[in-house]
Amino acid sequence: MSNPGMEALIPLVNSLQDALSDVCYNYELHLPQIVVVGAQSSGKSSVLENLVGRDFLPRGTGIVTRRPLILRLLHADTVYGEFHHCKGNKFTDFNKIREEIKAETERLTGRNKDISSVPINLLIYSPHVVNLTLVDLPGITKVSVGDQPADIEYQIRKLIMQYICHENCLILAVTPANTDLTNSDALKLAKDVDPQGLRTIGVITKLDLMDKGTDAKEILENRFLPLRLGYIGVVNRSQKDIDGQKDIRAALQAENNFFLSHPAYKHMAHRMGTPYLQKILNQHLSNHIRDTLPGFRRDLESQLRALNKEAEEFRLDDPTSRNKTLTLSVLIHHFADELKKLIDGTCDNVDTVCLSGGARLNQIFHLRLPNELTKVQPDEIKLRREISYAIRNIHGVRTGLFPPDMAFEAIVKKQISWLKEPCNKFIDMVNEELITTVNQCFDKLTCFPKLREETEKLVTTKIYEQERKCKDLVLQLIEIQLAYINTNHEDFVGFSKCATPLSSHVNVINTSGIVIRKGWLTMSNIGLMKGGKEYWFILTAESLSWFKDEEEKEKQYMLPLDNLKLKDIVKGFKSSRFYFSIYNTELRNVYKDQKWLELACCSQEELDSWKVSLFRAGVFPDKVEVSTVSLNSFTDPLLERQVETIRHLVDSYMSIIHKTFRDQMPKTVMHVMVNSVKEFIRSELLSQLYPLRETLMDESPDQQQHRVEVLRKHRALKEALAVIEQVSLSIPLPPPVDSPRIQPSRYKMHHVMHVLRLSTSKNGRPGHPPLPSPPEHHKRHNSFEHARAYLIK
């Protein structure tokens, strides 16, 4: 080549190959190169040896090439070879190069003819070569032999496809001339990844072994199964020549004489043979490198950016080269910061799949806790019986005219003491979720197993310690409530209002008109439509209203909350909805002629949310339907009125207690458990781990290997980019490839330019010199597309 800028491109890729040799075979980087593909005994090895001018490849029967051989040819004054796996060792004896290839292959694959995708890198310096980078792959085989794996054909094809499927790869498809070209395995594989034949070069071997009277003229003239880059014929040494150690230079001279003397090939002898193949491969590879280098550089930069953060962390936190105390401090700081972000909801990566961390705690605070508190509501019949016994026992032999305060206090204290179980269960749920959240942050410490184990033990111990303190504090809160029953509370309904039902007490407590919840619900027992009809519901402190849609313009109905109760409905196992009902305790119709409203939502979570909202509005569940007979089972009318009075007073006071605990419990666990654990990790954990730092900061073997691999890849990518930076941006365009198959003739080019000029003018501008009339088949080109297609052809 006469272009010195382009001459530098192939050595550039060789330098990149050196920089990336340790990571390229298993990393998403693909250098521009020529991959040699062919069936067994197709002459691949002979072609490569002819290009080098020396015998250096192992030979034998069966699969000889069992690992990819990345062969880099560099023009130099001296002749020697050098392997990447033993740098600095120059092989001047090419027989030793052959032995080293065999030894390195067997080192990884053994002697059982198995294959491996890990390449062998070989550089050959010689004054008789042009700059080239080729990859020799195992020959395609059909049948496994001896102790070869049964799927050897699949393994070889998979290995070949790993190389040739990338756009940066030129394919050198080697096919013997004495076989049917349509059955060529090499061309078939090339066509699978390069259907247009734009990056495939055909090499036809064994032209001298064709039957008498036959030739490959039509193939070599690119008229049969044409390729964009065409075909080149070569004549290799026969097995007899190889056994007789015929010199390759003599073989090249014999090859030249064969083409000059053969009647079918002598007119194209100047573009046949190994020297021409060297020249064409050099030019095509240089052009290909020039075209693909910008994209390859972008790939390198993308890979480097992806590794920058991790490599920087490994360099800063390397316990083998820096103070272990600093590494320990950084890891614990990251651990504390990650936990804080998870709880506060300020994580860099937002989870869109499920709730976690602080969101889960919030759900426990505002959904699970109210639900647990409502589960301890007493049985209605049993409660009234207990109130009746308390009143009569306090009155003794007397007949009381007024409800006794002691009966009220006795029932209230009993119900307050029942709160211990749901409160402890609430603390257990928070404790479990806090441990789960902390465990999510231990990923930062996975690389140090001993440190993770010790940290997990200390933090878990602290969580359980704070859990015990929290339960003790909650027990004190319950004891405080039992110590004094405050009937002077502003929200408590006194005797003057005791005739008012419970639900109205709750409404008095709430601010009128405040919207508690909005959402879609289905009325399943209203209308003739199967599955019911969906409405937009609005729940306030006083009423439950529903509208036609979310615009809230067409109100269908407004149901007051007085005397309403909530009841669960169990549906069949095939039902995909979740149901509950609302009914009036005085057996009145709640809507038109319906005694109850049967409502449905789409999920259990939505059902629980609606229940909690109704609890806040004062609509509580009635676990046992109290019949008229049971409510009026008292024989003394005065006792009945006293029981009813105490019953409503208890409901009013317990609603205050529930409200207090719904407010105080989340605050208590946040202060005693969550914030205390966060503060412990932030300020005390490091001091407890510090004395053990020498033993805790030992990395796991997997982490040590991962660290080395990441830093090695990062260093290799930086070196590769530094190599590319050495390329001058002023490298001129490469010269055209000297091949009439892909270079248009002067007449054809002249005609195409004429067509383009005509297509860009409105009516054909005058002044252009007349052209000779083209052949008939040229006249069909009358547009840009025709001209472009004709030029390519």
Write out key terms for the chains shown:
16 strands; alpha/beta; disordered C terminus; about 800 residues; disordered N terminus; nine-stranded mixed beta sheet
Q: Could you characterize what this model shows?
A:
The protein has 793 residues and is an alpha/beta fold. The chain contains 25 helices and 16 strands. The protein has a nine-stranded mixed beta sheet, with helices on both faces. A seven-stranded antiparallel beta sheet has the order 13-12-11-10-16-15-14. Strand 14 (564-569) and strand 15 (578-584) form a beta hairpin. The protein is elongated and about 140 Å long. It starts with a helix and ends with a helix. Mean pLDDT is 77; it is low at 1-6, 24-28, 495-512, 624-635 and 728-793. Residues 643-732 form the GED domain. Keywords: Cytoplasm, Endocytosis, GTP-binding, Hydrolase, Microtubule, Motor protein, Nucleotide-binding. It is an enzyme of class 3 (hydrolase).
The geometry reads as elongated
Q: From the alpha carbons, calculate the radius of gyration and give it in angstroms.
A: 44 Å
Helix content: 40-55%
Separation of the first and last Cα atoms? 26 Å
Classify the beta-strand content into a percent band: 5-15%
The parts where pLDDT drops under 50 for at least 5 residues are 1-6, 24-28, 495-512, 624-635, 728-793
Structural class based on helices, strands and sheet pairing = alpha/beta
Give the strand tally: 16
Give the strand order of the largest sheet, numbering strands 1, 2, ... along the chain. 4-3-5-2-6-1-7-8-9
Mean pLDDT over all positions: 77
Number of helices: 25
Largest sheet: 9 strands, mixed
Domain GED: 643-732
Family: Belongs to the TRAFAC class dynamin-like GTPase superfamily. Dynamin/Fzo/YdjA family.
Domain Dynamin-type G: 28-294
Domain PH: 514-619
